[in-house]
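Subject — a protein and its fold

Tokens — whole-number codes for backbone shape
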Amino acid sequence: MSIFEDAPDDYITISLHISETARKIFTSYADLKRLRESSRLCTSHTPAWATYREFRRGFRASWGIGAEALALILYHLASEEGFSGAKIDRYRDVAEFVWKKENEDEVDDDDFTWHKEDGYYTGNPATAPIVFRALNLAFDIDDQRRASRRSNGPNDQRSA
């Protein structure tokens, strides 16, 4: 049985896009550093030894890396690919759903949310505070984009 069997039709496509985006944007330490600096999304939940290679696993990365990876992916989609805040929220929902489905046999219900355990953060990365900060940032970027289009007037031909 597929984890997407009881999911909305677009969940598999969104899940694949999240994974592809992780592989695309985390190709070097410089990429990771640039995303952290431009977004100001960085968390102490991520171990100091984590490299861009772990971030390439996206929200599936372990040892607390998955939350920051997802936050940076969502930021990239909002800032560089022009996704709306609502679309970023949908992507976060998909990451939460997929992580739950992939881990439902290994994790108790109480452990589904992001939490510290044995010195490391674990649980569903899509429920971590940094991911919600990224979501709020995506809505801010979306608002700024709309305000900019309004101030440029009706002749502005840039896409939304």
Q: What stands out?
A: The chain has one domain: 11-148.
